Amino acid sequence: MKKFIGPKKIKTAVFISGKGSNLRNLIKFSKTKISPISIVLIISNTKKAKGLGYSKKYNIKKKIIDFSSKKFFEKNFINFLNEKKIKLICLAGFMKILSSNFIKNFRGKIINIHPSLLPKYKGINTHERVINNNEKFSGCTVHYVSSRLDSGKIIMQKKIRISKKETPKSLAKKVLKIEHQLYPSAIMKIYN
Ligand code: GRF
After folding, report:
1. What stretches in the chain show pLDDT beneath 70?
2. Catalytic residues
């Protein structure tokens, strides 16, 4: 397998809104020899995101961007990411919808992880809806971000069986576990 050496790694920003378990997992992956990426920036839309704590722990620059504020000037943000030479944006539990202009500026460079087997169950509350529909399987998907919500080209998926006693909570836990396997695999697939 190819080894990626420090400076040559693809400068990556991870966008979060919450706990950041995928962020933590991606940071750990990025430190392995086989990882093509290096995480240099954490972006959150809220200062309340617990995942921001990984900035200090792993010494990675963080920035809080209030995407809904009137003062938010997208062009400046795009320039900032370009100045930092960001070549990949990983959305990981990021709860804001990016503008089509932003997506156009980073075409093919923004990826997302979604806790369902897309194209089924786009949007929020996926696990409740999956269980209410008596699905036998669920899973997660890593896909390119396009201007339509959870609709860009699929990179990789991972499937799990739903047990008879499954609750939205237990399913969320199971799916999160496989998300942590899938996200690094999908990144490897993109760059190998
Ligand atoms: C994950 O299930 C992700 O797929 C979804 O939100 C959750 C985020 O978890 N969009 P975390 O913040 O990475 O722990």
Report:
1. 1-2, 5-7
2. 114
Q: Which of 173, 139, 175 is nearest to 157 (CA)?
A: 139
CB-based pocket (< 6 A), ligand 1: 16, 18-22, 51, 92-93, 113-115, 176, 179
How remote is the CA of residue 113 from the centroid of ligand 1, in Å? 8
Please list the alpha-helical segments (H only) found in the chain.
21-30, 53-58, 74-83, 100-105, 126-132, 168-191
> Mind listing the pLDDT tens digit for each residue in 81-100?
999 999 999 999 999 999 99
Q: Return d(Cα 83, Cα 29) in angstroms, integer.
A: 24
| Residue pLDDT, tens place only, 47-72 | 999 999 999 999 999 999 999 888 88
Length of the chain: 192
pLDDT the model gives residue 71: 85
Q: In a 3-state reduction of DSSP, which class is residue 29?
A: helix
Q: CA angle, 187 as apex, 25 and 3 as ends, to 5°? A: 90
Give the residue ranges of DSSP H helices in 84-163: 100-105, 126-132
